[in-house]
Amino acid sequence: MFKPTRDEFEQTKYKSAGFAQMGRIIPDQPEVPRDCHPVSHGLAHGVIHMSGSIILASASEIRKTLLQNAGVAVTTSLARIDEETIKAAMMAEGALPRDVADALADGKARKVSLKNPDALVIGCDQVLEFGGRILSKPRDPDEARHQLRALRNGQHALLSAAVVYEGGIPKWRHVGVARLTMRDFSDSYLEDYVTRNWGSIRHSVGGYKLEEEGVRLFSRIDGDYFTILGVPLLELLSYLTVRGILNG
Question: What's the whole-number mean pLDDT along residues 68-88?
């Protein structure tokens, strides 16, 4: 598994901390040459055809599906970075959870972009913040139960980051935030829920998926649905449209 050197980690960390750039095109970056801009060749089943490629630096099927359903022709490439090491190091230095989400998305996009300099690369990551700390994906059913008991009858935040790279250079970034309140569900329901859904929720921070039975755990949701699923989709599509990569 890829582990960043100290210099690479510091570069990623401080590049990710400038949240005045959130949701904006990053300034002082060279423009992509005209012949690298996408050219429309018509539509087929709602998918935008481009001369360049768009790569999602993630193995997430839900993120890929959301982009494809929105008419974005995207392929995937798994970026192997040591997420736990980066996360632990940044939290130890007092980084905010949204900084961590941005740094992880940045690291994924940067790694894939350096290998694919002619492509537009989208890196995404999501963290769950509860009581000032970050929860990771549960390692086993017992940890999933422990996380859900902690979240029960309280509010937590999901922070979903997206970073766009081209030619190894960051072009745009955004962190979306959603706040969710869990209801006071019973211990028996919790036990049954984890038993029924472990095969799916093992891949999700907090031990739930809102698009599945996990929605029954909640009493209130404030925020964008796509952010909850792991990508600030509306903001990302807006950027791609402004850039002329998508028709609009």
Answer: 93
